[in-house]
Design a protein that fits this description.
Chain lengths: ~290, ~400
Amino acid sequence: MDFVTTLVSSAYQFGDAFAFLVLSACGLAVIFGMMGVINLAHGEFIMCGAYMTVFAVNWGLPLPLAIIVGSLFAGLVGMVIERLVVRRLYSRPLDSILATWGVSLIASQGTLILFGPTMRGVGTPLGSFMVGSLSFSYYRLVLMATAIAVLLLLYLVFNKTRFGVLARATIQAPHMASALGVDTNRIYTLTFGIGAALAGLTGGIYAPTMTMIPTMGTTFIMEAFVTVVVGGADVFIGTAPAAVLLAVVKASLTSWQGQLAGQIGLLLAVIITIRLLPKGVTGFILKGRV
Amino acid sequence: MTSRWLQAGTLACAFAVSGAAFAADPIKIGVLEDQSGDFAAATIGKVHAIELAAEEINEAGGIAGRPIELVVYDTQSDNNRYQEFMRRVLQRDKVDVVFAGFSSASREAYRPIVNQFDGLAFYNNQYEGGVCDANMIVTGAVPEQQFSTLIPWMMEKYGNKVYTIAADYNFGQISAEWVRNIVKENGGEMVGEEFIPLGVSQFSQTIQNIQNAKPAFVVTLLVGAAQASYYEQAASANLGLPMASSVNVGQGYEHKRFTPPSLGDMYVTTNYIEEVDTPASKAFLEKFHAKYPNEPYVNQEAANSYIAMNLYKQMVERANSTKRDDLRKVIAEGDVCFDGPSGNVCLDPKSQHMSHTIYLAHVNKDHSIDFPKVWDNIKPYWLGDEGCDLTQSDPDAQYTPSNPPTKQ
């Protein structure tokens, strides 16, 4: 294998692992980072987005539009669940873990009962390209681009828009924000909805590459939680660098010794990171400022 | 309320005291299968097949005049549930026989409990072979039936460089060992082997490792719905290599679930799939669809479960007893056979495994199936040849090619 092929191959594998980590984690990171709620139904929001996307494709929508429909639908479901369940538990974080876990069980079992154990997927579009002797999938490049776009968009929404300012104010000092006339309940609902919609987007965009089953969300869960744990509370200065770090470890170990080594290495990296940086990458970066 | 409980209690005591079963006492069959979780797609059909067989047998007068009563629990693709429910069916429900298990990990989780309570369990699944245990009857196909046929055929057709990707637990590890040995015996070369943890769904790096190794074909021993994502991802990266497997199509009907041509040029050895074009297979499929019109696919394990029910009926009627030792005396006669959906099958007394007609199923680009080759009456010979003889002794063990029984 010549130098260029090796380079392209390594970059592609790193990008692929990075995209998976970022997209798995972003919805969880928004809900945990902004609201402090540990959402154990995260995987089911991903599954919800994936199923909705496949339904939309079956109704005749083109795939990109179907993914947006899936994402919006998951966001909507998220807002309803925030109103009905999560809202009542903001002061009881441990209970909210239990409640969202319950939601996750109901969602995956409900899907199993309604739609059966498996559903036909939509097939991966766009085909492949060759570099040297290796062939690569174009769709994986779309995943990488989406991951970067999602990070940029989140940054813009939470830092450059009026909603973002109000959201951050609500999270930092809810009573003060509400005294100044911010409808904090609405902000909580919308933020939870954004988190759920991001999970739905992840489900939708990965749906063409995966098996459609009611428990498909669980394959994202481990990566999602470790990225958020390593990243810490902030989506932008936490999640993105954490995903870079873990993607490097995972991609290089997997190419060297196979998937098992990749998984072990990923988890070891997590343990070492939180031993050295108990507050995650966020804590490390903010240390200078506090 | 209390008096009714008392009545029920007295009645139960009366039954217990009476000892010998009444003619109309039901025969209780425990069914522990994954109806939810990662494996559900492949295993819900097993429960349906058992229900179909129970209905047919009951309509025809039951087993020796006694109706079948099924005790069904959903094991949720979770090994702990298997242990919990196995204790429950053997201790509390006091079933006569248990039909249990999909993954080999689940079988090894419950097997010690079956041994402890000296129960009898049917494992109706293809697996990595080697279980030599008088408490178990295995109706699924084993490596000498699936790999000794498949791998040499593939090597002759496509070449002798082989790459294996396998699920990282006992099934995948031991099956990969079989493949490795057979490739070597036939003068081939393993150019790579990778074990994938269960639940992994992202395969780009694996696909590239395969491309770098340039095999003639890939042996895919992937298990569970998450790992099945491999095929879609390999197709979208245009890997384009033929695949050989003992688990795909026949269990998870991937050719029905994925968009063509992601499973194109996949070769599977299986003892049954619904495409098998024989009158017996068609009749079975018709009965199945009459009872379960929405069944997505009737797979190998469904057929084996159906066969197992009928074998059990035959054994109980011939032994005139549901006791394990009496049933095993019948098996020892060596002619417990059944003409089922997959052709004629017989139980081997030495290993309590089953002979099979093995079909080589080939998935075309449009995901239709053809059968380039059929091997008739392949016996589960390996355990017996290596020295497992359950008619003589019961080691309760699982053997592998690198850990065979010690010969006496």
